[in-house]
């Protein structure tokens, strides 16, 4: 599981202790700032076999901290 909903249901909360997420511009593949729209890349931090490094989920999304 990468994220979950809460009782307020206003956004999805990422499991930061299990996954490292990056927001990348889909055209240039460069990292972009918070609150910009981009593609999500995920790296699993607790994988014992072959790790999934920079797995592109092909979802356009936005990160908001706080």
Show the helix and strand layout:
Layout lengths: L2 E3 L6 E3 L4 E6 L13 E7 L10 E7 L5
Task: Tell me what the structure shows.
With 66 residues, this protein is mainly beta. It has no helices and 5 strands. The chain is flat, with a radius of gyration of 12 Å.
Helix content: under 10%
Give the strand line-up of the largest sheet: 3-4-5
Mean pLDDT across residues: 78
Low-confidence stretches: none
Question: What's the total helix number?
Answer: 0
Based on helices, strands and strand pairing, what is the structural class? Answer: mainly beta
- Report how far apart the termini are: 21 Å
Q: Shape from CA axes?
A: flat
């Amino acid at each position: 599981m990468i994220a979950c909903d809460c009782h307020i249901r206003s956004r999805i909360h990422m499991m930061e202790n299990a996954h490292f997420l990056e927001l990348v511009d889909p055209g240039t593949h460069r990292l972009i700032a918070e609150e910009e729209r981009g593609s999500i890349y995920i790296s699993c931090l607790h994988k014992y076999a072959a790790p999934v490094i920079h797995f592109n989920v092909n979802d356009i999304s936005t990160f908001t901290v706080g």
